[in-house]
Amino acid sequence: MRNPKRIQEMMSLLTEIWEHMLDLCFNQLIHNLQTTFHQKRKKGVMCWNYEKNRWGFLKVEEWAVNLFYVEDDEFMEFLREELKLLKQNDVYKRSVKNE
Known about the structure:
The protein is of the alpha+beta class.
């Protein structure tokens, strides 16, 4: 059985990250995190939806990142790294603003 304590930790990380991005709605936050995870870790599956245009050529209509098989501990490690970057950026913004 998976450790139930991971749920609270995951939610705390997401909450703290979201507090740095107040203009995003929840699904935008999740989408951005999934995409960034995929780009940085090269994990997750890109899912594409192809449609034929009026000339019969295939074109991409939609895409998404599927993290179904990514384990919680790996995603939480990524979230910790992202949170650290956000905090560093916030400190930099505050120091520049105060100059």
